Amino acid sequence: MKIKILGIKYLIKKIHKNQLDKGDVAGSVSSFDADILLAEGMPADVEFSTFIHETIHAISTSMDLDLKESQVMGLECGIMSVLMDKENTKVLTDFYTNAKSIK
Ligand SMILES: [Zn+2]
Q1: Ligand 1 centroid to residue 101 C-alpha, Å
Q2: pLDDT band at 4; cut points 50, 70, 90
Q3: pTM of this prediction?
Q4: Could you write out the three-class secondary structure of the chain?
Q5: CATH for 2-101, among 3.40.1350, 3.30.1660, 3.30.2010, 1.20.1070?
Q6: 75 CA to middle of ligand 1, Å?
Q7: Cα–ligand 1 centroid distance for 20 (angstroms)
């Protein structure tokens, strides 16, 4: 599957954990290859969080933000707390639906 980040289509690939580079625990991103690698077998919420983490890395690279790993992890946790809180489901759905309706 593919997802667009800042207009670039990234291929999301699930791979065996041993195929990740040394130091990468659950995922990695290559802006050069436009792919996001996720380790197979993670629970769905961990996989989603890892995807968010790698997306932040992609944005940091593309926008020359030079975020440190601790900043990426902080943003990952903060964004996940907003997206995954069940109390936020309706307001997030409303925001998304309204924003998509603008032409
Ligand atoms: Zn990272």
Answers
A1: 34
A2: very high
A3: 0.91
A4: CEEEECCEEEEEEEECHHHCCCCCCCEEEECCCCEEEEECCCCHHHHHHHHHHHHHHHHHHHCCCCCCHHHHHHHHHHHHHHHHCHHHHHHHHHHHHHHHHCC
A5: 3.30.2010
A6: 11
A7: 12
